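Methods — Computational structure assignment.
A single polypeptide chain was analysed. Its primary sequence is given first, followed by the predicted tertiary structure written as structure tokens.
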Amino acid sequence: MLIYPAIDILGNLCVRLTEGSFASVKNYFLSPVEQAREFLRAGATHIHVVDLDGAKKGQFLVSEIVTQMRSLPSLVLQVGGGIRRDEDVDLLIGIGVDRIVVGSTALLSPEILKSWIARYGADRFCVALDVRDDRIHWGGWQETSAKRIDDVVPGLLEAGVRHFLSTDIRRDGLMMGPNIVLYENLVCNYPTAAWIASGGISTLEDIRKLKDSGVAGAVIGKALYEGKLVLEEALEAAC
């Protein structure tokens, strides 16, 4: 199982939210590029980057920061936040981002996502299906859909999507453990997809349980910034 240390960017600094609320921003006053270097030194091979300003505005805004991260050696970059336009996708592909996370477009305009997959390949995209009380949220988690994950995954698989990220928003930033049952069900019901878990991960036991659930990866954020998890130990537990 891959570990994705998270770098959420707001105002060009590393922050964390609680349950996706922009009213609960905790600012760590860290440079995202320097934080990426620290994760790399600790042994990370993959990093999950989110442009929170872009997620709110529906337009990717931190291309300069991502370009600097791309210069770091042997680092796989997974980037999301407000990516809804052809120009954003072309820009990120041009920068050399390894995988682009798409949320709103996958829900509202799946044909556009299908055209991106046809152009660049399924492995360059990951669909974020983030839930609060079983309902999918989009638009930086500010908008609520009437749909559940099971309502949209079959169509997305048919469109060529192979990678998914799912966050239980109720657990995000609380460091009280991930929703293991959610991920076990997703892996069981859609075994051809690669699932990445996110939200609430804060102990080595959480990581071991997620690994046993069969997910392909896990995003860890606040627990690393708050010192509840040591990245080197998390990476070892995921092996």
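Note: The chain has a mean pLDDT of 94.
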